[in-house]
Amino acid sequence: MLAFILRRFLYVLPVIVGVSVAVFLMIHLIPGDPAQIVAGMEASEEDIAGVRRALGLDQPIYVQYAKFVARAVVGDFGVSFRTGRPVIAEIGYRYTNTILLGLAAILVAVVFGGMTGIVSAVKKFSVFDNVSMLVSLVGVSMPTFFFGLLLMLIFSVYLGWLPLAGKETWLHLILPAITLGTPSAAVVSRLTRSSLLEVLQQDYIRTARAKGLAEVVVVNSHAIRNAMIPVVTVIGLQLGYLLGGAVVTETVFAWPGIGRLVVQSILARDFPVVQAAVLILAITFVMLNLITDLLYRVLDPRISVQ
């Protein structure tokens, strides 16, 4: 298993390096002079040159990249142009909030998507199956911002059951998690159904039924474990997408997450924060894929470690 982990880590290392290069070049490819943006539009040429020297922008690009990587390894991404605080301090709290929202959303996706997918496969072509597939189609198709506003209107404005926005208590997490997790729940439900239907047609399932095992035992003990292997792939990818794509949900619900911070930083031209946030989210996505590979081995030890 250790060799498997090391081999997979070596596979993702070039991806991390490529992402770091892309994130570093971000500040050089965007229109405008970063030094002038930091110094202000009214700054003189001497002031701009001083800012350029202070930021190291007057050095060769390979030297700038080497310094960027060296600082990033120890968590030093510089200082925010907008607030003057260390970038890692700006991101740390918000990254934790985004992780919390992503985990809550994927819990919604796994619980509701998994349960409806399993029941739909067992009760194939029933009323529940047809209704759940229709709801899944609606969940995938509905825009996130519209669904979030609709939930706020119903449960916060009309019924008053849940808070409208912000982050103060655990109740503030419910609506954003449902909004963010519903499209993933629809994907998980449809994939779970199709995967389980395929497994239920295998010979060993027919053998288990012929031995007189109850249907609930056949499904729970023999079918679901094997059907979950492709579903785990989607869940791992969906969690990465949720963390990176929570911008709309965080904006609608004023959730203090890293996605909302990225939008604010882009509008303010706060490049160090944008660089650090994108790099951290990309590394998180890559590591989630690595964890997904490890889960394969847990679900089915027969899968090759090569």
Weakly predicted, low-confidence segments? none
The CATH class of the largest domain turns out to be Mainly Alpha
Whole-number mean pLDDT: 80
* Strand residues, percent: under 5%
What's the helix and strand layout?
Layout lengths: L1 H28 L4 H6 L5 H11 L5 H13 L13 H36 L4 H15 L2 H15 L15 H26 L3 H8 L4 H30 L2 H6 L5 H10 L3 H29 L7
Structure description:
- The structure is a single chain.
- This protein is mostly helical and 306 residues long.
- It has 2 domains: 31-74, no CATH class; 89-299, MetI-like fold (Orthogonal Bundle).
- It has helices at residues 2-29, 34-39, 45-55, 61-73, 87-122, 127-141, 144-158, 174-199, 203-210, 215-244, 247-252, 258-267, 271-299.
- The longest helix has 36 residues, at 87-122.
- The chain is flat.
- The mean pLDDT is 80.
Give me a quick take on this structure.
With 306 residues, the protein is an all-alpha fold.
Give me some keywords for this one.
MetI-like fold, 76% helix, 2 domains, 306 residues, mainly alpha
